[in-house]
């Protein structure tokens, strides 16, 4: 926490040029007047969890959506805010560094100064630990000058990435009160925004005047729901990794003798792997979501890859590229169960050196089957959210090792007659996190920073800044805010036989949708990618001219704008109310009742079938 945070950077010529780029903002954020339209109260996506969430968040659950309007909008009930007293706002990085994070701070700072030059923005140095210790850096034009459109989080830094315990929440509250903050902006992913929601609820309950705002920034791309289309950093991470993968694909095709196993960051969800596959066309991708859905074992996955190797060998191809999400290890049922036992033993205070002697018989047998390097990695202490240290578990090496053994076995049995299998393993985890952010991430982060000010100006607490219609140009983006509690679900699990399921509300990571358009696009081309070497190289990140405005496949092909459709539905309902009023004809009333009864029945069935609670 004593690093030179906030000091001017030594910049290359390209970095200097990037600091001069001024991101656009949509028309709804222009000017000094804040125009906000409130929709109806929100609910939980899962009706079964709504009661639990509302009990845990009595002050912040059920709040309405907010839409920020351009000056030409004609909305009778819109709240018009023209007076902007000076305010004090704190901002903190929480979570893995993601390209574009600095632009959230820049956008927030500019919005504050546009509306009142006396407003103050304070950055907490060293992430959440800096928040607890009240270690601050006053954000100024000079401080920001060498961090605009730059990667990393080194303006302020980050640390433990959580505000969860009673002591931590009290320390955060004490800091906000001591510094007289009107607002606290938390920049992070699913865990950080869950913490933000809890902090907002605590502040509201204790009458603390500080309003808490969350911003969806995570390289994992897993903070997705009906309100959030994309996360800051995901676009850049995928483009940088895709070029690296494509370079490896070209190398594989050139030498024709190696299989490259590449593990990608992204936590348990496989969003990064999916996007990179669509960008670069590797031969094979193992999705954690597929493994979970089909309950594939380690043996099944080994056979799947080995069969692919054999099929390619029959075409005289002895090279290939296999992508693996870092969270795959937690999707393989027997490995996940083993990790759960290990983590439970950690919780009992048993040292890593002695854990293997305390495992159940089946877990001990699996543990001994695994190669020594994986055993050592599985014994690492879990993360703060109780998940495995996924970045440290070399699943790609494990799979390469098992496939090599399987191919040797098949050779010995005479079922494989091709050349020797050779594997080279890579982990693309840290190479892209500090990249210069793409044009999209620069714009998106900057706009979210502006929205944070609008949320605070509207007096909202426990909200996340949102932008929809992101696949369109910036001037058509729709800006708003959604209560974080509306994004929560309650995942239930049992601690043992006969025990009632338990769970707590949280913003949970979104998995790859195996019925989504992006996944279907990949599946349609999977057989060609596997056998025909249709490698594609998108090239390095572009900031100007051709390619600079390219969006990710997963953003471009999916059907988004949920909030826009909610508004459209409200307009239809308003029209119905205007038509069906006392005095309308019997025919109109009968038609309305019949139509509404049918719609109600259909929606009830859809809601209960898609949200039926299950054990996780």
From TrEMBL:
It is found in: Cytoplasm. One of its GO terms (molecular function) is diphosphate-fructose-6-phosphate 1-phosphotransferase activity. Keywords: Allosteric enzyme, Cytoplasm, Glycolysis, Kinase, Magnesium, Metal-binding, Transferase. GO terms for cellular component: cytosol. Residues 88-453 form the Phosphofructokinase domain. Allosterically activated by fructose 2,6-bisphosphate. One of its GO terms (biological process) is response to glucose. Pathway: Carbohydrate degradation; glycolysis; D-glyceraldehyde 3-phosphate and glycerone phosphate from D-glucose: step 3/4. InterPro entries: PfpB_PPi_PFK (IPR011183), Phosphofructokinase_dom (IPR000023), PKF_sf (IPR035966). It holds the Pfam family PFK. Its main location: cytoplasm. Regulatory subunit of pyrophosphate--fructose 6-phosphate 1-phosphotransferase. Tetramer of two alpha (regulatory) and two beta (catalytic) chains. Belongs to the phosphofructokinase type A (PFKA) family. PPi-dependent PFK group II subfamily. Clade 'Long' sub-subfamily. This is Pyrophosphate--fructose 6-phosphate 1-phosphotransferase subunit alpha. It comes from Dendrobium catenatum.
């Amino acid at each position: 926490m004593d690093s030179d945070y906030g000091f001017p950077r030594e910049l290359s010529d390209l970095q200097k040029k990037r600091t001069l780029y001024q991101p656009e903002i949509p028309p709804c954020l222009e000017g000094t007047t804040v125009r906000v339209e409130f929709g109806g109260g929100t609910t939980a996506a899962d009706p079964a969890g709504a009661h639990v969430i509302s009990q845990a968040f009595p002050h912040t659950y059920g709040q309405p959506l907010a839409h920020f309007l351009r000056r030409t909008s004609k909305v009778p009930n819109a709240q018009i805010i023209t007076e902007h007293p000076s305010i004090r706002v704190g901002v903190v990085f929480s979570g893995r560094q993601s390209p574009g994070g600095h632009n959230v701070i820049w956008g927030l700072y500019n919005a504050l100064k546009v509306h009142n030059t006396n407003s103050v923005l304070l950055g907490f140095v060293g992430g959440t630990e800096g928040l607890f210790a009240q270690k601050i850096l006053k954000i100024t034009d000079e401080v920001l000058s060498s961090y605009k459109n730059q990667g990393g989080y080194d303006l302020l830094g980050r640390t433990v990435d959580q505000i969860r315990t009673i002591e931590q929440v009290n320390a955060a509250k004490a800091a906000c009160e001591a510094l007289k903050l009107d607002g606290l902006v938390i920049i992070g992913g699913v865990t950080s925004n869950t913490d933000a929601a809890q902090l907002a609820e605590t502040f509201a309950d204790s009458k603390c005047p500080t309003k808490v705002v969350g911003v969806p920034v995570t390289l994992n791309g897993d903070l997705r729901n009906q309100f959030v289309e994309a996360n800051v950093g995901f676009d850049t991470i995928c483009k940088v990794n895709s070029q690296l993968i494509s370079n490896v694909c070209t190398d594989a095709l050139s030498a024709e003798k190696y299989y490259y196993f590449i593990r990608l960051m992204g936590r348990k969800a496989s969003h990064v792997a999916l996007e990179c596959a669509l960008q670069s066309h590797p031969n094979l991708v193992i999705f954690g979501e597929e493994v979970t859905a089909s309950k594939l074992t380690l043996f099944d996955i080994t056979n799947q890859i080995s069969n692919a190797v054999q099929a390619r060998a029959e075409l005289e191809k002895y090279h290939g590229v296999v992508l693996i999400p870092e969270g795959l290890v937690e999707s393989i049922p027997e490995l996940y169960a083993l990790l759960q036992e290990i983590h439970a033993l950690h919780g009992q205070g048993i040292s890593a050196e002695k854990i293997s002697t305390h495992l159940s018989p089946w877990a001990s047998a699996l543990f001994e089957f695994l190669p020594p390097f994986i055993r050592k990695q599985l014994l690492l202490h879990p993360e703060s959210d109780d998940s495995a240290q996924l970045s440290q578990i070399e699943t790609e090496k494990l799979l390469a090792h098992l496939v090599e053994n399987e191919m040797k076995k098949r050779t010995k049995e005479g079922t494989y007659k091709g050349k020797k299998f050779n594997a080279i393993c890579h982990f693309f985890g840290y190479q892209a996190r500090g990249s210069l952010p793409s044009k999209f991430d620069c714009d998106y982060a900057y706009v979210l920073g502006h929205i944070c000010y609008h949320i605070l100006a509207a007096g909202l607490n426990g909200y996340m800044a949102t932008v929809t219609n992101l696949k369109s140009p910036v001037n058509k983006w729709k800006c708003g805010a959604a209560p974080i509690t509306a994004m929560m679900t309650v995942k239930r699990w049992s601690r043992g036989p006969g025990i009632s399921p338990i769970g707590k509300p949280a913003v949970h990571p979104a998995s790859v949708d195996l019925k989504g358009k992006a996944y279907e696009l990949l599946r349609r081309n999977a057989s060609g990618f596997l056998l025909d070497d249709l490698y594609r190289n998108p090239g390095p990140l572009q900031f100007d001219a051709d390619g600079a405005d390219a969006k990710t496949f997963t953003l471009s092909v999916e059907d988004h704008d949920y909030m826009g459709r909610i508004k459209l539905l409200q307009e239809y309902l308003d029209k119905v109310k205007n038509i069906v009023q006392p005095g309308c004809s019997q025919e109109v009333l009968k038609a309305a009742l019949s139509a509404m009864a049918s719609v109600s029945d259909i929606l009830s069935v859809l809601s209960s079938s898609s949200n039926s609670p299950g054990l996780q």
